[in-house]
Design goal:
Blueprint: H1 2-22, H2 25-40, E1 44-46, E2 50-53, E3 59-68, E4 77-88, H3 90-94, E5 98-115, E6 118-119, H4 147-154, E7 158-160, E8 162-174, E9 179-192, E10 199-207, E11 210-218, E12 227-235, E13 238-250, E14 253-264, H5 267-273, E15 287-296, E16 299-309, E17 312-321, E18 328-339, H6 340-343, E19 347-348, E20 364-365, E21 380-392, E22 395-407, E23 410-419, E24 426-435, E25 438-445
Parallel strand pairs: 5-7, 5-8, 18-21
Antiparallel strand pairs: 1-3, 2-3, 3-4, 4-5, 5-6, 8-9, 9-10, 10-11, 11-12, 12-13, 13-14, 14-15, 15-16, 16-17, 17-18, 19-20, 21-22, 22-23, 23-24, 24-25
């Protein structure tokens, strides 16, 4: 019995030590780098150590793993990971399959760049033709007929059951438009039945210093098939739900179409928290919006929108364009009654619970001085608002139209018109300059 325990202990020690001694780690690094280069056309560097273990399950670890960015970029590395750990299923290995029970990425930093209509996430393997600008393919098209089939046949059968990301960061840079967005403190868990899906994801991240939670399901990805998806995002004071289909290989690249539902407990607080306005007289007013959404790399639109802001109900469309020097936002809103008295009175928002109906939109009123909103938006915007009736300081006007163009804090008044009490109709056009929360220039013709 004693000798049997000693033999078992020696076997365990051998299983733990022998792989680290017999395996040529430099050869492993070279083979991994070669495989990644053949698949992406990019250099893979493993500057840290690599380790192997067999017990309790086969495991591979690599430190300081980096994937090269495309050429002529200010950032040499597209992906930089402090440590990668892969845990493999031993039973599947016996049957010749590679099934990663878990792939763990510790402190990954991903840089996404877009320049001249192309993204650095589009790879061009050796012998493949570069994709056209705006192409949705992750891998470029093969240079010869049958290349895709040969590449598919040579790809080993690999499955990943779970992906874990800890302390991740993603930076998006649009070199042509001078735009950037950073997402950090990312903690994400993705479960998959295969590399083609379906996928289930859940995690948290931080955008503009604010915590965001994400939970979603993505269907199986197949060539020439739309991919169903469901995503729920929790923002500080808000909730976004999206159900739709991801359409691949369209003329606009990958396009997402579906139904969107947004709820925000306090529209004013939400706008200032995420940097949309430095000040806006909507505090305490809940916002709810829903409609048909279409999202592509160059922009998107929200159609058949139903919007409720405090006591105001409206319908309309919203469109945005991300190409160019500055993002462009176009808003077209129609409402029967715009109660400015209620909207500009600061309120204390009620906490929303399911089933409380209009109670969410009935906060208590506390009248105060109305601040001038800061229109120095990070985007250019066109606003067309039409209201059958507008109430302001207890007076009602009719057939109101407000057509504005906003750029870098300057407002071009294309048309402001209404039927005032005792007057047939009044129209105005001109220019308004707003700096911070103060009126700095006014040139109107009435």
């Amino acid at each position: 019995m004693r000798y049997g325990l000693m033999a078992a202990a020696c076997l365990l020690v051998a299983l733990a030590v022998v792989p680290t001694v017999l395996i040529d780690k430099n050869a492993v690094k070279h083979r991994l780098a070669r495989a990644v280069y053949e698949a992406t056309g990019r250099e893979l560097a493993i500057d840290g150590g690599v380790g192997f273990s067999v017990i309790p399950t086969p495991r591979f670890r690599a430190e300081a793993v980096r994937l090269a960015n495309w050429s002529n970029s200010a950032e040499p590395w597209m992906l930089d990971i402090r440590q990668v750990t892969v845990t493999v299923s031993p039973l599947d290995l016996l049957w010749g399959r590679v099934v990663a029970r878990a792939v763990e990425l510790d402190t990954p930093h991903l840089i996404l760049e877009r320049r001249a209509g192309r993204g650095n996430w589009v790879f061009t393997p050796p012998g493949y033709l570069p994709p056209r600008p705006g192409a949705a393919d992750v891998i470029a098209a093969p240079a010869e007929a049958g290349g895709a089939q040969a590449a598919e046949e040579s790809t080993p059968a690999i499955a990943v059951e779970k992906l874990l990301i800890r302390n991740g960061r993603v930076d998006y840079i649009d070199a042509s438009g001078g735009k950037s967005l950073s997402v950090d403190a990312m903690a994400l868990e993705v479960k998959a039945q295969s590399l083609q899906g379906p996928f289930q994801a859940e995690g948290t991240a931080r955008i503009a210093g604010r915590t965001v939670t994400v939970k979603g399901d993505i269907g199986r990805t197949q060539a020439d098939h739309a991919v169903p998806l469901h995503v729920e995002t929790g923002l500080e004071g808000g909730h976004l739900r999206l159900d739709g289909l991801l359409l691949r290989d369209t003329d606009s690249g990958s396009v997402l179409k579906g139904n969107m539902d947004l709820k925000v407990a306090d529209a004013g607080d939400f706008a200032t928290r995420f940097g949309l306005f430095s000040s806006v007289p909507l505090s305490g007013h809940a916002l709810a919006a829903s409609g048909q959404v279409r999202i592509a790399a160059e922009g998107g639109e929200l159609n058949e929108a139903q919007i409720r802001l405090g006591p105001v109900e409206a319908s309309g469309t919203v469109a945005w364009v991300l190409d160019g020097q500055r993002p462009k936002l176009s808003v077209n809103i129609n409402t029967r009654h715009l109660d400015l008295d209620s909207l500009t009175a600061p309120r204390v928002a009620s906490e929303h619970t399911e089933g409380d109906g209009d109670a969410w939109f009935a906060p208590s009123v506390a009248h105060a001085a109305v601040p001038v909103p800061d229109f120095a938006l990070p985007v250019d915007a066109d606003l067309l608002l039409k209201a059958e009736t507008v109430t302001w300081r207890g007076q009602a006007t009719h057939a109101a139209v407000c057509d504005l163009s906003i750029s870098r804090g300057d407002i071009v008044v294309n048309q402001v018109s209404a039927e005032l009490p005792g007057v047939a109709q009044v129209r105005a056009f001109g220019f308004v300059g707003v700096g911070g929360a103060a009126l700095r220039a006014l040139d109107l013709t009435v």
